[in-house]
Design goal:
The chain is mainly beta. The chain is 0% helix and 50% strand. The strands form 2 sheets. Strands 2, 4, 5, 6, 9, 10 and 11 form a 7-stranded mixed beta sheet that branches. The protein has a 4-stranded antiparallel beta sheet with strand order 1-3-8-7, with no helix packed on it.
């Protein structure tokens, strides 16, 4: 079983990116999923989470109003739409499935002019 993130990159402040997380080897639709991030020299922190139905979502205060987590269970994807990006959003972003304590390899997001 694994999850793989994609969609990171370099973006200017104020820009947008959409991260994707795809699952393989298990039924993604039965599980809640979270996005975490880790900046250099800092601890990994929760960014957003979504219930298995998509009906419940939670966000870190630092990203509320800018980031949106969503899922497409038919395609086995979870997304993180990131708008109005700031330099402090620079980090490696990870997809996490608590049921399996399963982490992806991460995708780098760099916000810089």
């Amino acid at each position: 079983v694994q999850v793989v993130e994609s969609g990171g990159g370099l973006v200017q402040p104020g820009g947008s990116l959409r991260l994707s997380c795809v699952a393989s080897g298990f039924t993604f639709s039965s599980n809640s999923v979270s996005w975490y991030r880790q900046a250099p020299g800092k601890e990994r922190e929760l960014v957003a989470g979504i219930s298995w139905t998509g009906g419940s979502r939670n966000y870190a205060d630092s990203v509320k109003g800018r980031f949106t987590i969503s899922r497409d269970n038919a395609k086995n994807f979870v997304y993180l739409q990131m708008n109005m990006l700031k330099p402090e959003d620079t980090a490696v972003y990870y997809c996490y499935v608590p049921t399996f304590d399963l982490w992806g390899q991460g995708t780098q997001v760099t916000v810089s002019s």
